[in-house]
Amino acid sequence: MTTLKRLSVFVICMMSMMAAMGQGMNFEPAGTTLEQASVKAKAENKLIFLDCYTTWCGPCKKMARDVFPQEKVGAFMNPKYINLQIDMEGEYGAPLAKKLQITAYPTFVIFNADAQEIGRFLGSSDADGFIKNVEEKSKDNSSSENQKRFENGDRDPQFLLAYLQSLNASYKSAEANKVAEALLDGKEATFAADSTLRMVFMRSVNNPFAKSFVYTVKNPDALKAQIGEMPVNMKIQNVLTNYQREIITEENGTATIDQAQFDKFVQLMKDLKIANADHYRLSTLITLSQKQKDFDKYLGYIREYLANGNLDADDMQLARWTQPFTPDTDAKYRSQMKEILLQRLADIKAGKRQPMTTVGNMRLSRPTDELLRMIVDAMDGKMPNQ
Questions:
Q1: Helix (H) or strand (E) run with residue 61 in it
Q2: Domain boundary assignment for the chain
Q3: Could you tell me if 184 and 211 are in contact, meaning their C-beta atoms sit under 8 angstroms apart?
Q4: Cα separation of 187 and 215, whole Å?
Q5: How far apart are CA 76 and CA 90, in angstroms?
Q6: What is the CA radius of gyration of the chain?
Q7: Does 3.40.30.10 match the CATH number of domain 24-140?
Q8: Of 362, 361, 343, whose CA–CA distance to 353 is shortest?
Q9: Each residue of 169-202: pLDDT tens digit?
Q10: Residue 112 C-beta-side C-alpha neighbours within 13 Å
Q11: pLDDT tens figures, 105-115
């Protein structure tokens, strides 16, 4: 190779390097997994940066549009991190979000090369704020150190409170529940009188089998006397509602239920004499059959729900149950769902029920009988106002 050619190649290489240096963040190709990023991080002696986003998240789009492409952001991130973006509602992302306890977006997680979490932070920011957050969380090893202390049996109350605070700040609800249960262990009958422990229970206990939760359901008066009846009732409802979702898992496009845990959950509600236990049981089965696209079971559970004299599905719930029925759904299932809606409309017309005009504190733009009629028309292929 002549000297001129060598010089030409050198100049091209230098220009390429300079162009790369002027880029924003270099993200791995779409579809790259955390496991694959770990292999690359080990090979290149880098950390892993994970952008947890969803397609509907406005702040996520803002970061991708305004911050990640900036030259100074790329100059900081690219030499030190394997940068990864994963849709947390995608086929790979959904189970990962559950594993990482990602519930708010955008969430940014820093891992070491072994894919062990070092730190995380949430929300959009400008470029300087983003760099500062990444730098701080990349040095913060307190999460893993605290986890080791907890797993090794450290139950010092001050440590547990500090650890719990950091877990709540990171939206790690499953781990926060474990720490909260440890803080409340042995104090089930007395925690209601302690403002700090009340806060721990109300914010962090989300396991219906937790001793503090079971005690509170059986003996709610002490806590109600401190904070009122409605917050306690809402807490009980939220724990049961969230748990029924937790026992359904989705992986590789397939939804399954932990049958043993579901059976224990149903038995627990019987033992606790939950007034509307059938609501949680049937809601779980309706959700599962919807995700499995088993419309025979789906419609069967809906009918069972509607026939249960102790339960009441309002018009908005009926409307939500129609969501899986697309034009591609078998006509016989659409027809069966339409019959359910027509029966509700007949009950409203006969005065057996009143249409809803409000949901909570929100006034509806039209009464729900009109909404149900529009859905029926759509199932018949009619356009609105046709």
A1: helix 58-62
A2: 24-140, 142-229, 247-312, 315-386
A3: yes
A4: 10
A5: 28
A6: 26
A7: yes
A8: 343
A9: 777 888 899 999 999 999 999 999 999 999 999 9
A10: 8
A11: 999 999 988 89
